[in-house]
């Protein structure tokens, strides 16, 4: 962007067609330091963004100020509604929130009550994150939210307790440390599709390359949701698969056995190191503006394809785009 040129707030600062560009974007927007900004700072950032869109920003406003205001706005306000999000449900809170919960899940896996409690805490946190970052164009009823929450929590507990019971009699302590990861992966496969079930039923809005709405597609929704599920599992995988090996070896050392009270804080800290990099990396695995061939829609959704053709005067584009969500 040239000096003096106005910034297009509808376009990302970084190239979203490359993994590196997406990685830079998510490092920027998921910065956990934005979670401690005051309510006044967030409101001022929103007001500046609104004023800038109208060309009414205060005289002397610099590009650096606009970029920082945009960072606060995009990290704290819902992109569809413009409402301020609950701080604990923001993607920028994934590192501090996730490191605490995951660290304790990895540490307290030896007893059924501990497994039950920390899996419940984790699924409650995930439900809040999923609800906070929901697609406002496909709202869920209170009943649907309750079913999604109970189903995800139940799947996590069944997996955790069942896997733990199975390994307790057949495997050593190292494999038992992987119980939390198995439960988290299973719950993500249930939680996210249920939280976004309306997209699977009604379809997501799809657009041509110029941003014109051309129809809705359930297949596109399924593709986007499957990518989000994979990303969420990938986000947790390194910390929850590498740390068990590290802790298994460390806990055999004499000096570690003398400081058992510090084992949980150490795991929390190490999980935080992993999540600092894995949250933006996992979010950047797939483009936010996802694409799908209309030939795929024609194959699985002939009714949706006909509507696309109708909306495009009989000439459906070969590729359409949609927002896959986070």
TrEMBL record:
<protein>
    <recommendedName>
        <fullName>Sidoreflexin</fullName>
    </recommendedName>
</protein>
<keyword id="KW-0029">Amino-acid transport</keyword>
<feature type="transmembrane region" description="Helical">
    <location>
        <begin position="228"/>
        <end position="246"/>
    </location>
</feature>
<dbReference type="Pfam" id="PF03820">
    <property type="entry name" value="SFXNs"/>
</dbReference>
<feature type="transmembrane region" description="Helical">
    <location>
        <begin position="266"/>
        <end position="286"/>
    </location>
</feature>
<dbReference type="GO" id="GO:0005743">
    <property type="term" value="C:mitochondrial inner membrane"/>
</dbReference>
<comment type="similarity">
    <text>Belongs to the sideroflexin family.</text>
</comment>
<dbReference type="GO" id="GO:0015075">
    <property type="term" value="F:monoatomic ion transmembrane transporter activity"/>
</dbReference>
<keyword id="KW-1133">Transmembrane helix</keyword>
<dbReference type="GO" id="GO:0140300">
    <property type="term" value="P:serine import into mitochondrion"/>
</dbReference>
<keyword id="KW-0812">Transmembrane</keyword>
<dbReference type="InterPro" id="IPR004686">
    <property type="entry name" value="Mtc"/>
</dbReference>
<feature type="transmembrane region" description="Helical">
    <location>
        <begin position="147"/>
        <end position="167"/>
    </location>
</feature>
<keyword id="KW-0813">Transport</keyword>
<keyword id="KW-0496">Mitochondrion</keyword>
<keyword id="KW-0472">Membrane</keyword>
């Amino acid at each position: 962007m040239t000096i003096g040129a106005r910034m297009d707030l509808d376009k990302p600062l970084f190239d979203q067609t490359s993994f590196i560009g997406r990685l830079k974007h998510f490092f920027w927007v998921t910065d956990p330091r934005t979670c401690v900004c005051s309510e006044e700072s967030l409101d001022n950032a929103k007001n500046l963004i609104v004023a800038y869109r109208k060309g009414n920003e205060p005289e002397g406003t610099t590009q650096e100020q606009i970029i920082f205001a945009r960072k606060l706005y995009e990290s704290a306000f819902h992109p569809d509604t413009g409402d301020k999000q609950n701080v604990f449900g923001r993607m920028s809170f994934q590192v501090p929130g996730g490191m605490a919960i995951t660290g304790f899940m990895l540490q307290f896996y030896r007893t059924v009550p501990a497994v039950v409690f920390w899996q419940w805490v984790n699924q409650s946190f995930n439900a809040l994150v999923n609800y906070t970052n929901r697609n406002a164009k496909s709202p869920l009823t209170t009943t649907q939210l309750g079913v999604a929450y109970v189903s995800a929590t139940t799947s996590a507990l069944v997996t955790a307790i069942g896997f733990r019971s199975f390994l307790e009699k057949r495997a050593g302590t190292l494999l038992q440390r992987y119980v939390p990861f198995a439960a988290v992966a299973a719950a993500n496969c249930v939680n996210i599709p249920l939280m976004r079930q309306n997209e699977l039923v009604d379809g997501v809005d799809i657009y041509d390359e110029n941003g014109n709405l051309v129809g809705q597609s359930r297949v596109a929704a399924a593709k986007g949701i499957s990518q989000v599920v994979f990303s969420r599992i990938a986000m947790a995988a390194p910390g929850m698969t590498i740390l068990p090996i590290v802790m298994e070896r460390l806990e055999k050392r004499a000096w570690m056995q003398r400081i058992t009270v510090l084992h949980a804080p150490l795991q929390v800290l190490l999980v935080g190191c992993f999540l600092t990099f894995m949250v933006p990396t996992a979010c950047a695995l797939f483009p936010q503006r996802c694409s799908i061939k209309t030939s795929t829609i024609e194959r699985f959704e002939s009714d949706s394809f006909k509507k696309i053709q109708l909306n495009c005067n009989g000439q459906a584009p070969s590729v359409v785009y949609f927002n896959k969500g986070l």
